[in-house]
Amino acid sequence: DACWGGGALLSEKHRHLMKGCESADSLAWNPHKMSGAALQCSAFLTRHAGLLERTNCAKAAYLFQPDKLNASLDLGDKTIQCGRKADVFKLWLMWKAKGDAGMRKTIDHCFELAAFMGDRIRADSTGAWQLVYEPSCSNICFWYIPRRMRPFDWATSTERQRAELHKVAPFIKNEMQLLGDAMIGFQAINGRPNFFRMVFASADRVLEDDISQLMDRMAAIGERAPIC
User: Fold this and answer.
1) Side-chain-facing half-sphere of 186: CA atoms under 13 Å
2) Backbone phi, then psi, for 49, in 5-degree steps?
3) Using CA atoms, how far apart are residues 20 and 17, in angstroms rounded to an integer?
4) pLDDT category of residue 72 using cuts at 50, 70 and 90
5) Per mean pLDDT, which range of 17-26, 38-47, 108-117 is the poorest?
6) CA angle at 225 for the pair 123 and 120, rounded to the nearest 5°
7) Higher model confidence: residue 227 or residue 23?
8) What DSSP letter does each residue of 121-156 carry, written as one string?
9) Are the C-beta atoms of 55 and 29 separated by less than 8 Å?
10) What is the radius of gyration, based on Cα positions, of the chain?
11) N- to C-terminal Cα separation, the chain
12) Helices marked H in the chain — which ranges?
């Protein structure tokens, strides 16, 4: 599954993260994620010639005629998308427009923004921001800790503290959504209270200052989060 991280193959800096993928039996990649193609645009690579046709083929006579000109080039019966097989055209157009250097720059910029945000959270001395997990690819998982809850330490926190923190991320997201500001996903996994997952994708126009200003707005809203 390289649906998200597969874009790293386009980057000289980050290609090593995909080391070993050449040994995979098959590989899925979604250029509509980190690479920035328009939705939807997905690629599936397999070592087994004819597998996709055997799996997806319906041999619909009204669509696919074996005796027509260049029938072997018709990919419609080799994919579950059938008539939407031209989705790959989005990737071709984007690559032609941006070139190898532009595609590489898009990926590198996503990683750079993630590194910037991760470093900013680590450098925070107020206790307002905490990484829930170390950054992975261009994903940053973090909490905003309202002033009244500081200092917060996950390992020593009480159930009441965790329950209160659990309500902070949904409150911030809801308020930002109502304001038309931003939509940042959150989730609670592995027993952790709700935390944000910032995903940098197709972020060519996003600057480090945009991230800093976004975090300032999140903090202002977070201070209004209700006490449970």
Assistant:
1) 23
2) -60, 135
3) 9
4) confident
5) 38-47
6) 10
7) 23
8) HHH--SS-EEESS--BTTEEEEEE--GGG-S--GGG
9) no
10) 22
11) 39
12) 51-56, 88-123, 159-166, 168-178, 208-222
Q: How far apart are CA 224 and CA 226, in angstroms?
A: 6
Nearest to 219 by CA among 189, 181, 190, 191: 181
Strand-pairing partners, residue 203, are none
Distances (CA, A) of 216 to 48, 62, 203, 210, 222: 51, 58, 19, 10, 10
Structure confidence by residue, pLDDT tens digits, 165-217? 999 999 999 999 999 999 999 999 999 999 999 999 888 999 999 999 999 99
Percent of the chain past pLDDT 90, that is, above it, reads: 65
Residue 91 pLDDT > 70: yes
Structure tokens at 206: 């996003």
Residue in this structure with the two tokens 């006579």, named with its chain if needed: 61
Can you read off the two tokens belonging to residue 207?
């600057």
Tokens of 118: 């991760």
